[in-house]
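Encode chain A's predicted structure.
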Amino acid sequence: MHQYLFFIGDFPIRAYGLILSLSIILATGTAYFLAKQDGRWHQHVPDIGIYCGLAGIVGARLWDVFFFDWEYYQHHLLEIPFVWQGGMAIQGGVLLGAIAGIIYTKIHKIDTWAFADIVAAPAVIIGQAIGRMANLMNGDAFGHPTGGNFGIIYPSTTLAHQVYGDKPLWPAEIWEGQIDIIIFVLLLIFRTTNHAKGQVFILYAILYSTARFFLEFLRGDYGTLMFGLKSAQLTSLAVILIGLILFIWQGYHAERIGLPDKKSK
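Encoded structure for chain A:
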């Protein structure tokens, strides 16, 4: 891993920012491909990618600041905008990005659930997978010590090394990125079934939240909140519960999705 790729004068080009930007661009590209393949709304994807990407960055940063690192940032308020230092919570990014997407689809009279199924769910999760590469390069979202001679030893310039030194740590961010790719494939497969509208996006939320809940037991970058669980785990449990209810509800009440209607624009 390497935090700084190169310098332009005294200005550092950080791997974190470059890969994070790449994750948004490639997620938008994936969304465009899926929408073009389906035959609907592809002309809106570049715009919605920009709006949701920016909203996602803001949401991810604020979620991390207030739910994970407020003990630090309450004394360093001016550092809250310093996203290049790391500290982005995916759950907050998805939440605010989803809100931006809902607003956009309502303004442009786009079927929100259908758009989320066709475009959002598969594209978002592949963006998350790429984003975890940024975490690895930056040395954040790291695991706690493995207790053995196996694991990742981070460079001295990273937050992980500042917290645990030369102790080998669980590769939590790597495993999450790999699981995200598996979820991406599962969502593509599920899209080929005779599912109800909205179920693809809801399934994304359930699968990711389930994976995140268990991976949090390996994370070592912040402590527990209540009941021996971390904030991300409590959020994941809430999303899983609500997601299961919505998945069943949509299955009984929503329109069934077959082959895409090429005439719908």
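The chain has a mean pLDDT of 87.
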